[in-house]
Structure formats: structure tokens, C-alpha cells
Write a structure and sequence with these properties.
Blueprint (H helix, E strand, L loop, with lengths): L15 H7 L8 E6 L5 E6 L2 E5 L6 E7 L2 E9 L1 E5 L7 H4 L11 E7 L10 E4 L1
Antiparallel strand pairs: 1-2, 3-6, 4-5, 6-7, 7-8
Length: 128
């Protein structure tokens, strides 16, 4: 019985049929993730909320942020980083202090998870 986020509604048991008939269709665009493993294998997956990259040890990750083959941030020291869709912007992204995006926005939120350096970097908005 979730109540937070674009995809959640306040729980009510009555009038379900009427509410379904009055529902307005919304297009949600999934995010396709392509990753290359250290062995060179390409992996593809779809995400509705976000794609997250996490550190693989107890040490802080050092991540270079590159968008469209252009380096945007040379080194981000953090626990991880995520790219959130508008539908996912009110989920984990919001908990990590990322922005809320309108559902129809052609944007993605690039949000760091527990950033250490640079401390003041709070992420970026990317055109979809």
C-alpha cells in the first residue's frame, strides 16, 4: 500500500471499477541499459525507475562521468551513481536527493549516491 511517487495512489477499496474507467493513460518510457563486462560481454536490460552503478568493495568507487563520449566529470568518489527516468525520479532517486522530473519531460536524472568528492556535485539533468 505505497503512497509516495508517481506510480502510487492512496489506497481505497471502494469504487475501483469507476476509478479504472476514469483513469487517464500515461506513456512511460523505459530506460535501456547497455553495459560491457570486464570480459568484453555486452549486457542489455530495461529499467522503469533507474539504472544504478555500485561500488564492488567497501572502498569508495572512483567513477568518470562520460555523456555522449564527452567527459563531464573526471572523477566522482562515491558509493555509486544512478540514472533515473521521470517515472523513477520520485523513488530511489528522490531518496538520494535527486530532482523530481515531470512524467512527460524528455530528461533523465544523473544522481550520485553518497558522494564524497566533489562534495557539492549533486548530479545533472540529461536530455533523453
Amino acid at each position: 500500500r505505497g503512497t509516495i511517487g508517481f506510480l502510487m495512489n492512496e489506497y481505497r477499496s471502494g469504487g475501483l471499477t469507476e476509478r479504472l474507467e476514469a483513469a487517464v493513460a500515461e506513456t512511460i518510457r523505459p530506460l535501456e541499459m547497455l553495459a560491457v563486462t570486464s570480459e568484453g560481454e555486452t549486457i542489455s536490460a530495461l529499467a522503469i525507475n533507474e539504472v544504478a552503478l555500485w561500488r564492488q568493495s567497501y572502498q569508495t568507487a572512483k567513477i568518470r562521468i562520460t555523456v555522449d563520449e564527452q567527459v563531464r566529470l573526471e572523477e566522482l568518489n562515491c558509493d555509486g551513481v544512478m540514472i533515473a527516468t521521470p517515472a523513477g525520479s520520485t523513488a530511489y532517486n528522490l531518496s538520494a536527493h535527486g530532482p523530481i522530473l515531470p512524467l512527460d519531460a524528455p530528461l533523465l536524472a544523473l544522481t550520485p549516491v553518497s558522494p564524497f568528492r566533489p562534495r557539492r556535485w549533486r548530479g545533472a539533468l540529461l536530455s533523453n
